[in-house]
Amino acid sequence: MNDLTKGKPIAVILQFAIPLLIGSFFQLAYNFADSMIVGHTLGKDSFASVGSTASLIFLIIGFAQGVTNGLTIISAQRFGAGDLEGLKKSFVHGLFYASLISLLLTVSALAFLKPILVLMQTPVSIIDHSHAFLTAMFGGLTFTIFYNFLSSALRSLGNSKTPLLALVIACFINIGLDFFFILVMNWGVFGAGFATILAQACSVLFLIFYIIHKVPHYHIGLADLKLDRGNLKKHAQLAFPMGFQASIIAIGAMTLQFMVNQLGTDAIAAQAIALRTDQLAMLPMVNLGLAIATFTAQNYGAKLYDRIREGVRHSLLLSIAWAIVFAVILILGNRFFSGLFLPNASQTVLDLALVYYIINGSCYWIVASLFILRSFIQGLGKGFIPTLAGFGELIFRAAVAIIGMQYFGFYGTAAANPAAWIGSIIVLIPSSIIFMKKLKAGQSI
Fold first, then answer.
1. What is the per-residue pLDDT for 29?
2. Which of 194, 275, 198, 323 is nearest to 32 (CA)?
3. Residue 76 near residue 156 (C-beta atoms within 8 A)
4. Which pLDDT score is estimated for 98?
5. Looking at residue 217, what DSSP letter applies?
6. Are residues 314 and 10 in contact, defined by beta-carbon separation less than 8 angstroms?
7. Is there a domain that residue 387 lies in?
């Protein structure tokens, strides 16, 4: 386990974040593997069908990730405070909520999948492929949710290396299964989704084995399985707002996808390429944010407020620096990045992707700030403000996507994400300033 309340703040944050970052690269690698193998072997329509599902996947899985991250913020606070009995109770209540949302999300996602795709105006030429891919992904939601919960539970103890190892295992299994299901079994995009789910199932089994043998803090017996109203309420008050925040953001992304779908498969393919590069750009930002959330939670539990302020400041500067550097690389190397996913892309697709790179890349510094400040506030145990910021993202993204598409076509839809980041950051900045001042004065929040 790794105690983040000791040592130089930026050093322990980076020590914690680097395994997270490496793990996310592997996670992105097996997501990229799906896209690249589909794009290289099945063609533009299949690639577009997978890409067009991103916002719907984010709606469902993003909610689950938000909930599991929220559940383990409380675990990190209790670990930082040295409350090991409370830590075990937090783990048990987290298991309960993870099981509950696994059941509810799997049933609801599969039941309403086709109507949602129709509502999003998914083109007829790709809707069956999109449905097949999502059926595989949502059919295995339990594995996705428990991977996220168990990884978050370990991170709350300062252990970011074991989730990394689980991701490495999943990555290689996923890539191997991609080739087998797509090229040998000819299962098409369903095979790509099924490969991802089987890989995540393997990572869940690995994490369970590790916790049983290496993490006594999470060893539970029948006597520990008793739930109490106080812990149920406390965990729900933080976890579900974080889940709803992700879902709110995803609804905005679905609105954006709805507008892009009306522009045809070239626009859908260009956006699918660009969203993959967005994921690459945001990896360090996201993982610094995850590190800040755990760092803040542990130090807040230990009442080390000055360490929190220093860690947030340095992480913010580092995240912004990365955003600027990557934006320059992306715009200058646009052909390379586009060719990774669709080597035979038409000039129209390449030109549209470049538009997206320029508009979004120039605003990466905003989203870099967003991830750090939002995670800082979440680490303090405050779920409402990030949810409010999520509403800001929803309103700004949807408004710009709808109005922008009507007047500027793809150019307007490409500006929707930067607008959303602005809608969120204008909520997070004043809140962060207030909280920083309270921490400086030695006040709990």
1. 73
2. 275
3. yes
4. 96
5. G
6. yes
7. yes
Quick: pLDDT tens for 86-123. 999 999 999 999 999 999 999 999 999 999 998 878 88
Residue 445 has a pLDDT of: 75
Contacts of 340-348 spanning 24+ positions with Cβ under 8 A: 340/32, 340/36, 340/276, 341/32, 341/35, 341/36, 341/39, 341/47, 341/272, 341/273, 341/276, 342/39, 342/44, 342/47, 342/269, 342/273, 343/39, 343/40, 345/44, 345/269, 345/273, 346/266, 348/266, 348/270
Over residues 349-381, the pLDDT tens digits come to 889 999 999 999 999 999 999 999 999 999 998
Domain count, the chain: 1
Is 303 among the domain residues?
yes
Report CA dihedral (279, 26, 338, 50) to the nearest 10 degrees: -80
Please give the structure tokens belonging to residue 152: 């978050």
Find all residues with CB under 8 Å of 114, minimum gap 6, and list them: 131
Among left, alpha and beta (phi > 0; psi -120 to 50; other), residue 8 is beta
Place of tokens 């007047």: 407
Q: Domain of residue 79: give its range.
A: 16-440
CA distance 280 to 25: 8
pTM (predicted TM-score): 0.79
- Token pair 């072997």 in the structure block, residue: 41
* Helices 141-155 and 161-179, axial angle in degrees (round to 10): 160
Residues in Cβ contact with 104 at an 8 Å cutoff, skipping those fewer than 6 apart? none
Please give the full DSSP string across 19-37, using - where no structure is assigned. Answer: HHHHHHHHHHHHHHHHHHH
- Look at residue 30 in the predicted model and tell me its pLDDT: 67
E runs forming strands in 210-356? none
Residue bearing tokens 């995803």: 250
211, amino acid identity:
I
Residue 332 exposed, middle or buried by CB count within 10 Å (0-12, 13-18, 19+) = exposed
Task: Report yes or no on 445 lying in a domain.
Answer: no
Is 281 domain-assigned? yes
Residues 6+ away with beta carbon under 8 Å from 373 = 312, 316, 425, 428, 429, 431, 432
For residue 421, give both structure tokens: 């980041």
Q: Which amino acid is at 301?
A: G
Residue spans of the chain under pLDDT 70: 1, 30, 34, 44
The token pair that represents 356 in the structure block: 């997206």
